[in-house]
Amino acid sequence: MTLHRFFVEPAEMAGDRFPLPTAIERQVRAVLRLRDGDRLVLLRNDGAEAICRLEAGACVVEDRRPAASEPHHRLTVVQAMLKGDALEQVVQHGTEVGVATFKLAVTDRSIVRELPPRRLERLRTIAREAAEQSERGRIPEVMAPVPRRRTAEPAGSAHKHRHRSGGRLRAGRGPGRRRRRRHCGRAWPADPAVGDGCGGGRGVDLVADRRLRLGSRR
Q1: Which of 206, 218, 194 is nearest to 80 (CA)?
Q2: Which of 44, 48, 42, 47 is nearest to 27 (CA)?
Q3: Tell me: the pLDDT tens digits for 47-74?
Q4: Residues 87, 79: contact at Cβ < 8 Å?
Q5: Is 49:137 a contact under the CB 8 Å cutoff?
Q6: Distance from the CA of 203 to the CA of which of 20, 77, 125, 211 falls in 20 to 30 A?
Q7: Spatial CB neighbours of 214, under 8 Å, sequence gap ≥ 6
């Protein structure tokens, strides 16, 4: 049986027996209607999980172990600002496939150039809920938007992308083949830079040991 999973503050789950964290008490008792004897998984956002049994208003730890579904790699997505609820979908699905950090970028052609604090908190809530649903052991970080140039990798690391051990991988057709597409009355190469689209960004950079740049598929 699949157990319900909740991220809580580390201080709220100290020791092998502790009160049910107040942040999840209503959801556990009133919404999910879990009772004494039922089990749930609590996470401290450090890659580990605790299997707990409810008992007289407290959580009794039965086992502590690493979260098996948490990826070993640390993948960062640099995402151009998007209109509407598109960013919510990026964060949700990116979290489900193992992204560790989302860096929101304001590009030269971004239409949306600011993100209100309430929307940023909403994105972080979506990341937490998606991490719980996908059995992650960590909540991805969703960073406030900054100009595109400030999302670049640290100085001195760019040259690594030319070698096989840290090469740049590009989605598209084979080496040397180029296409041109139409967008907003203009043509561009099949492998555009991130965030150059009229709609506020045509793709994302995925930054890890290697870099994958995804262009438009329209």
Answers
A1: 194
A2: 42
A3: 999 999 999 989 999 999 999 889 988 9
A4: yes
A5: yes
A6: 125
A7: 171, 203, 204, 206
Q: Are 181 and 210 in the same domain?
A: yes
Rounded to two decimals, the pTM is 0.69
Please choose, from the candidates 23, 212, 206, the residue with its C-alpha nearest in 3D space to the C-alpha of residue 125.
23
* CA 1 to mean position of chain CA atoms: 26
Helix axis angle for 117-133 and 86-96, nearest 10°, is 30
CB 137 within 8 A of CB 98: no
Q: How many Cα atoms occupy the beta-carbon half-sphere of 62 within 13 Å?
A: 10
Q: In this structure, what are the phi and psi dihedrals at residue 160, rounded to the nearest 5 degrees?
A: -65, -25
In terms of domains, do 178 and 88 share one? yes
The better pLDDT of the pair 209, 29 is held by 29
Tally of structural domains, the chain: 2
Residues 125 and 142 in one domain: yes
pLDDT tens digits, residue range 118-140? 999 999 999 999 999 999 999 99
Which range of residues forms the domain containing residue 51?
5-66
Q: Which CATH number goes with the domain that contains 127?
A: 3.40.1280
Q: Are residues 62 and 80 in the same domain?
A: no
Same domain, yes or no: 20 and 87: no
Spatial CA neighbour of 145 closest among 119, 172, 167, 180? 119
